[in-house]
Amino acid sequence: METNKEYVFETKDWIKLDGVNDFWKEFPVKSDKPEEQKEEISYYVEAYTGDMDEAGTEANVYIQLYGDKGDSGPRRLLQSKSNDNKFEKGKCDEFEIKAVDLGNLRKIKVGHDGDEPGSGWFLQKVQVRTSENENKIFVFVCNK
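Below the sequence we write its predicted structure tokens.
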């Protein structure tokens, strides 16, 4: 059994919260052994807000992706790539999350931090695809 194993994590990146970038940053282990090497990929998350009255939210929304190789941890959906004002009635907002390859996605956890008036949210569905296989789409229906 090897007891003095050294792991290297390259951290050549800023960790910041500036309203655009996520405040999470994963640093995959760097290794000469392919079975230990994990590469970071992009997850493209599309959140569809329902089309009924008061379906949108002003709350901070979080998502956690779960796959057969692990989970992403909770991530705040900060900057929509498709809309200036995110989570509005009848709109789809797209976000990019960078994480190590989680394998086939099995479930997601979605929530928000709001308990003020206007923070309720009707989430129709979430679709996720990856930079590794953009033709494969994982669909999670919520309708709540």
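The chain has no helices and ten strands.
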